Amino acid sequence: MSLLVVSLGVSGCGHNAGSATSPPPGDPARPAATPVVLGEGRDRTGSRSASDWASNAEFVVAVTVVGEVRGKIAQEDLEREEGMISREVVLRVDRLLWSAERGNMQAPQEIRKQAAGWVFNNNNGTGERPFALTNASRFEVGHSYVTALDWVDDPCSEDAMKGSWAGLGAFGTIPFDSGILGLGEIEGRVQDLRGVRTDIPTLRTDVAGRSVDELAARLAVAERKQIAPHQMACEPED
What we know:
By secondary structure, this protein is mainly β. The chain has helices spanning 50-56, 75-80, 203-206, 212-221, and strands at 3-7, 10-20, 35-43, 59-70, 82-99, 110-121, 127-133, 144-153, 163-166, 173-175, 184-186, 189-191.
C-alpha cells in the first residue's frame, strides 16, 4: 500500500461566515448547525472544465475520508487567543476512474493531505468554528469524493520519484456520497443535487447526477492543453 502526502489545490484565508454544516454519515452526535467560516482562495491550476482536469491531473480517483488529525495551535495564536487550527485528513482511494497515462507513476491507495481546519476567536465570544474555502470541499470524515490528483516534484530533490500529490483548484473535487456525483459535502455543509451551483459552468455541474463512467468518458475526449510546469522554490526544513 502506498501512502503519500497530498496538498490542497487552493490556498487562502477566512473572512466571512458561511452557512451551517451537517453531520457526516454515521455521526449523529455532532451538532447539526455549527456555523462555517468561508474564505476566498487562489487556485493553483485550472479546475472548472474537463479540459482543465485532463490537462493538469495525473489521476482522477474516488476517495472516502477515513480519519483526521487536528493540528497544534501556534504559540502566537494561543497567546492572542485568535487564529487558525490546521487539519490533516486520511483518504482511502476506493477506485481509479481515469489516468492521464503519462510516465510510470502509480495511483496511490491511501493519501494524507492538509485540509481546511478551524478558526477560533476567544476575544469576541465566537469561539471555534469550522473553516472552508468558497466552492471547495473540506474533506470531512465519512464523506466520499471524486478528486483530481496532480504530481508535484520535490523542488529540493533531483529524484523524480520524490514529491507529493496535489489537488487542482476549488472545482477539482466533486462530492460523491452514496456513489452519486454532486451529492455530499461542499463548503462544510451537505448538499443534495438541488444544491449544485449552476451559475458557474463547471465539470462538477455538468456531471451532477450522472455516472462516474460518463465522467471518465468526458475526460478521455477532453482537450489536453500544454501546461507549463509549476515552478516551486526549495524551502529546506530547519
